[in-house]
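Predict fold of Alpha-amlyase; 474 aa.
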Amino acid sequence: MKKIFLLVVITMFFACKEEQKQSIATTNQEDTFKPITEEDIESGIIYEVNIRQYSPEGTFNAFTKDIPVLKDLGVKVIWVMPINPISKVKRKATDGQFTSDIEDEKEREKYLGSYYSVSDYKAINPEFGNLEDFKNLVDTAHDNGIYVIVDWVPNHTGWDHPWITAHPDWYTQNDKGEIIDPINPETGESWGWTDVADLNYDNTEMRKEMINDLKYWLTEANIDGYRMDVAHKVPQDFFEEVTKELKQIKPVFMLAEAEQPALLEKAFDMQYAWEGHHLLNELAKGEKNADDFQAYIKKQDTVLQDDDINMNFVTNHDENSWSGTLRERMPNNKELFTALIYTMPGMPLIYSGQEYDLDHRLLFFEKDSIPKTKGDYFTLLQRLGELKNTNLALNGGKDAAAYNAIDAGPSVIAFSRTKDDDEVIFVANISDESIKTNVPQKGSYLDYIANQPTQLKGDAIELAPNTYKIYVKQ
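Predicted 3D structure, encoded as tokens:
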């Protein structure tokens, strides 16, 4: 009897010790990693991770071990594409048909469906791992000084989401009382998103439950905010309520997949720079010139408030899969336009595989994978990330650095960015011919990419076709 009692005491002792260790670890993490602030995003770089395609395993754990690599690239925010289970009902295949229409079982099984057809907002896609794996991803990111936001799909759900049967009135219905997929209001026709059911935002109960589900991931997994899918199709007042509710739990960072400045007033911190992205593609093909770029930047001053942020990007999951790789869209100048999104006002995006110079359109509905060989492009992102993180002149958040256009003609994009005593000058020849262009600044600078001290004398510099210079004031 004494032996049994002693064994119980020893077991309880070690259990208490383990609980104490976990409590200390949690406390230490809270002490060292604080919720996101406006200062954190001034020098931010955001990374979009496609968990399915990031590794051969396609799991949270396979990605988590590489988070220190992202820290080396200067990443401050990880945006995780949807983590929820994917609907099996009306699951789409690559050719647009439903997998249920495919007779061959092996052929049918290879189609994993769209991340954006969610079957349960409060569950983890088993394809990626489990809840503990995801929590470990978030904790590891925090340990590396990186915040995590989750891709959320508020406009629609998959067809086997529990709400479909439990609350059909939470969905948009036709005259026959049938739940429908999202409709283009301008044409009255389907957008073609037939694998999802459109949510009804006139229903207040649905809104409440959606907000509860959004709160869940902040309290359960300690995430730092959300990227909201097709934010322009959901009522603005809903997002304003969401952000207000979430901020009662902790400070959050909110990204809108939209280009509607009104959404940035009370609901979001950052929006997609879709107009800027399309302009970059047109510049790369010679369809637009430097004057168009300067006009775009000037326009941003009129449509955005001082604390609004544009997310600048040369690729993302949609662009890569549907519009083409960087080699397809920017065959001679992807380095130039990559450097541009790091130096222009806003926050630059890196998409999974971009750092490894991905030259492949990733499959969207099937398993695929990215390369993992570091090359010159990876080194370029390292260098640009270091400059973005450390030089105040590239601040692009709530208290952004000044932008000063330099008139260098239609073939040269030139500007300086300044804040306090820091200055960065960007000059790029976007033509297919060598050009001499004036840089008016004088003094000691570092030719940043070449890593060479340079004296600018206010006279002409020569630029080869599709090349650029970044000068950093010394």
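The longest helix spans residues 2-32.
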